[in-house]
Batch of 4 targets.
Target 1
Amino acid sequence: MLSEALRWAAASASVAAYGALCAGIWWRERARASAAAADAAALAGQGDAVLMVHASQTGQAESLAWDSARWLHAGGTPVRVVALNALDATTLGQARQAYFIASTYGEGDAPDGASVFVERLMESPTPPTLKQLSYGLLALGDREYANYCGFGRRLDDWLQAQGAQPAFPRIDVDNGAPSALAQWRSRLRPDASEQDLADASPSPDFAPWRLVSREHLNPGSDGGPVFLLGFMPPPGPDPVWEAGDLVQVVVAADPGRPRDYSIASTVHDGELQLIVRQERHPDGSLGAASGLLTSTLALGDTVAMRLRPHPGFRLSGNEERPLILIGNGTGLAGLRAHLRARVATGKGPNWLLFGERRAAHDFLCRAELEAWRADGTLARLDMVFSRDAEAAQGERLYVQHRLLQQADEMVAWVERGAAIYVCGSLQGMAAGVDGALRQVLGPDRLAALAVEARYRRDVY
Ligand SMILES: Cc1cc2nc3c(=O)[nH]c(=O)nc-3n(C[C@H](O)[C@H](O)[C@H](O)COP(=O)(O)OP(=O)(O)OC[C@H]3O[C@@H](n4cnc5c(N)ncnc54)[C@H](O)[C@@H]3O)c2cc1C
Ligand SMILES: Cc1cc2nc3c(=O)[nH]c(=O)nc-3n(C[C@H](O)[C@H](O)[C@H](O)COP(=O)(O)O)c2cc1C
């Protein structure tokens, strides 16, 4: 179980990163660029507005909340977009109409964007009375998980237990199913014309990206092979993304479920790069998306991808701060994008703590990391090789152990204003790092960092 303090990161980042959110909207809907920014400004700060509340992990609920707010606003309803974690009992207790868009993460758990709300309100012995509240709820999920839309269902039950009235039955969305989203839009504006509804349906913005390079990063590893992949954009306007963002890849064999990958390069690098581990199923077959990217797809062939803003893992607001970047395995992708962006801006200092199995085979992007250490881009580089440690001292050591060994340095960096970014495995690494940070900094300080958006995660 992840600690509550850790789970604040993405949520509070979203709350703080209003500018980034506007940028995200602009970026996803380039055709309506200036209108979107104007909308976003108009939507904010309306006292008697309907609430559009999002609880998100990787940004989909958040992005849908802004889309939905714009849709309501276009129909003449004033809307205020707010993160669930930013909602207090008083605001909710006074609201008459609210819409909630909530995802589920982990194994039926609340996403980072809901953790504070869960702790402070849903698990409170004295929850607010919500008899005045009429609400709608869109639950995002994936039927492949045992606890489908688990957090959305929990939130729905809780709202009703406090006396709130559903304006319509909860709508569950399996993998962004367009039919469920169309149903949601027509519930928000029952009077909208067929034409308005058709215009509001986002077109699938997947486009063909061309694979131009594929480098095996860990030959001889006992772990799954990891590749650095380079892609050139489809014809048309130059794509725009920020360090911290994701791409989604569509697999023809599994059209219902795009896979997310953390972008490992910046827009200035001239190509979009990913770091992908090839999955192999127990029956020997390759993972659908990772197999396509790392094996089946030939150099020069195209794959359907789309860029996806991840406001909760961008730098936004932390540009001037020292950065502590922590991760393992393919988590290097998101951290590398941030480091490449730091090279471009010359900002620092930067400290990378990175874990893999063996230095001889798994030192991903070694030349680049060592060059950054040598030229000062990395003020500190802590590589932690678990199997080497085991061979040397009989014990597997991970990044969280190194973090504990470096406790004084960590505290000193945080006191100098550092922000902490964690990218990689949700199980094991992210939970272990969370525990170590709590131990080193104390739970209250870690919670405060999360609220200040100085603790952000891209974990999966
Ligand atoms: C926010 C986010 C960021 C991510 N970033 C990265 C990244 O930077 N790099 C990266 O490599 N990955 C990343 N991932 C993971 C990535 O999205 C995929 O989940 C991963 O590549 C596996 O997808 P796949 O289609 O290859 O595997 P799938 O075919 O979906 O298989 C995945 C697992 O499902 C099970 N399974 C599925 N089908 C079968 C079957 N027929 N028989 C038995 N078992 C089966 C197995 O346990 C298998 O290992 C990220 C995920 C998220 C959510
Ligand atoms: C690591 C991980 C765990 C997930 N766990 C669940 C789950 O237990 N139940 C479910 O219905 N969906 C689950 N999902 C699917 C997400 O809820 C779904 O992708 C959602 O659209 C994400 O929205 P967000 O970007 O706003 O967080 C999971 C997704 C990931 C990546």
Target 2
Amino acid sequence: MENYFNTGKKELCNGCGTCALRCPKSAIEMVEDGEGFLYPHINKEKCINCGLCEKVCSNFNKSEQESVAYIAINNNDKELKNASSGGMFYILAKYVIENKGVVFGVTYDEDLNVIHKYAETLEDCKQFCGSKYVRSDLKNTYKEAEKFLKDGRVVLYTGTACQISGLKSYLGKEYDNLILCDILCHANPSPKVFKLYKENLEKKYSKKVKDIRFRSKEIKWGDERTLIELQNDQVLYEDTFKNAFGKELINRRSCNFCVFASKSRITDFTIADFWKIEKVKPDLDSTKGVSLLTVNSEKGKSLLNIFKNNTSILEKVDIDVAAKYNHFSNVPAHKSRDKFFEGIKKGSINSDNVIDVMNKYTRVSIVKKILRKGKRIAKKVLRK
Ligand SMILES: Cc1cc2nc3c(=O)[nH]c(=O)nc-3n(C[C@H](O)[C@H](O)[C@H](O)COP(=O)(O)OP(=O)(O)OC[C@H]3O[C@@H](n4cnc5c(N)ncnc54)[C@H](O)[C@@H]3O)c2cc1C
């Protein structure tokens, strides 16, 4: 079977780092490449060719689970406001914390690096709410999760499907007390580009960036802007990084070949935005956010019965209909992705110009805009 180790192909490595953690000789180190993503680097002097790195490689989707899809919304307005979609993550977190469990999720550290971390109180779980559109650093969380599981604590581990595949591979066995929830993910942007973006903002506005909230629901769900909070509580809206992520300019190579982007999910739950909900359920008030929740396992099914009281709507929907409007298959890279990353590697794209360059590559030309508008009008006329 082809993998990163026997081919050297970057599209076959999702960067989970399980190989490095499990190597019996500590011969593997995860090293950042010029694009800002981690890849295993083997120290040939320490390596004994045991082949365990290939065996534990997590970049395979062996799932045959059949999922059931739901339209779901958290019934608590405050919790819904803090969430990117319909606030399903927080409902899961609440259940786990109420059962004296531990929740793993993604947050910012003090320098706005995106990292995985655990929380043991509901207050602490709030930092995980909201999408941070950057590849997170998993830190020591696989080992920490294993310890909690062995101590008998309930553990909820959330992350992208590839990160959860890495955890499963690291653990090497099933745990009844482990709940797995992946966020439906179409790609992971480069932490290095994110850092340059933050520095470019700081130079432009001569102030430190305190916070970046990609999905601020101030306007309306679906029309969210990226809210940048600067020192002295100055706030501005700036979407360049999010646009470049959405247009596949700044993402990890393996994301464009993702083996988990499918209806066969590897977790107990998958949470996503319910895009185009207006086509599926036109009468639903979707202004505050709607989740697409898929329940993927027997464990998920029995837990759902406990959660349903925390939702204002939990309605079954055909998974094929839901999947039609979302990323259950691979998304190709932007045509200038490699050129962009060449500039990052050489340093010609840097903290002085990264915003302008990302804008240049992702700007929609006036001709295209006019054509798109024309198409929309033509469709409306034909429907009448
Ligand atoms: C990189 C990325 C790509 C995504 N792509 C899609 C997509 O194509 N289609 C779609 O419908 N939804 C996508 N999402 C998911 C969506 O944005 C919401 O996160 C999801 O619907 C959960 O929303 P919520 O309202 O339940 O809870 P929220 O409170 O919004 O979500 C919080 C959860 O997201 C996790 N999280 C936040 N940032 C990250 C990160 N960088 N990496 C891993 N986990 C993270 C937290 O740990 C927590 O579990 C993506 C999210 C990320 C981070």
Target 3
Amino acid sequence: MDVLTAIRTRRSHKLFTGQPVDRALLQELLELATWAPNHHYSEPWRFSVVGSAQLAAMADAVDQQLGPQPAGRSQAAKIRAILAGAAAAIAVRQVLNPADAVREREDYAACCCAMQNIQLGAWAHGLGSYWTTSPAMIGEKLHAFWQVQPGEQLVGAIILGEPAIQMPAIRHKPLSELATWL
Ligand SMILES: Cc1cc2nc3c(=O)[nH]c(=O)nc-3n(C[C@H](O)[C@H](O)[C@H](O)COP(=O)(O)O)c2cc1C
């Protein structure tokens, strides 16, 4: 798949078939992530990779994060069902630079570019994925699970797997509303 097609046809997927994914493919997605633009070659990204064998442990960590209240139980059950079908999850951690606010902002942006590379690379291999910043998936109580190190923050996680259904493209705003030609 060429890059233009990958950009235009990638959609967020949350329903997966349960088909596993080779470690080599996950390795390639990480490598693609590291080609993302990053100012001063700061390479601020770190990756926590969860293969299929660890997805149940991730669901347990989500359980802990969401707590015993009914709303939490219901969200945890939904996430457990998603993870049961998924093949892997990758969290992107940013190395922080508190002394330099500009650099920290740039590094966050670079980590987001790395996440997009992972999603596009996955899609080019026929894998669906979605990006999550939900506290349910990356909240404080999951930091130990993701092995967040001191001086890092979790930027987000990508859940991926073979898509069980095709997702429709939804875009609302016409380009004429979005672009100002100077
Ligand atoms: C920074 C960021 C955070 C997101 N967080 C979530 C999330 O927590 N849960 C979720 O279901 N989707 C999340 N998404 C995915 C968006 O909801 C999704 O990209 C959007 O609906 C557009 O759909 P598409 O990806 O199919 O084009 C996030 C996307 C971004 C860029």
Target 4
Amino acid sequence: MPSEEDPKLFERTTVKGLRAVLSPRKSFDFSCTACGKCCRGPGSVYFTPDDLKAVEEHLGLDAAGKADLRGRLIQAEENGYYVHRAGGACRLLGSDNRCTVYPVRPLQCRTYPFWPSSFVSRTDLEALAEECPGTLKGKGRRYSLLSTARRVNKTRRQFLEAQKEPDEHFMI
Ligand code: SF4
Ligand code: SF4
């Protein structure tokens, strides 16, 4: 999660901004290699109440199973989100390195790496490329600057929508 002191957080992601942070590249490229690195933290995974319900249904949990899952998964609650701070690998990551709830994974996971915080500056983008082997390696699917901006702004809108008190500082 980005720092509250960063004034650029209040800016919407624009083609002009992306041109500056991606230069000299003229597009963004990404294809997931299924390495599982982004599920291994450190960091937090944010679940809306609906996300959590979908996970419980997907796993077919009874009342005891739900209580157990919530006990293992929820370390905090922030602005309408349940927060999973595993301190390492997400507890929903399987031993085969795959997400055990992939069809119902939360917004944060579905939208990675198209997060507002990844595109604020060149430094953020370099950190993303270092973390994710599927990003900016020239081998993945190409996204135009416009398409990238649209995806990132959609993530921003969706992440804000689930907040109790809409706050652009509270962003993935
Ligand atoms: S780090 Fe990147 S390549 Fe690896 S699983 Fe996550 S999105 Fe896919
Ligand atoms: S919910 Fe699934 S995709 Fe998201 S961090 Fe956990 S294991 Fe990874």
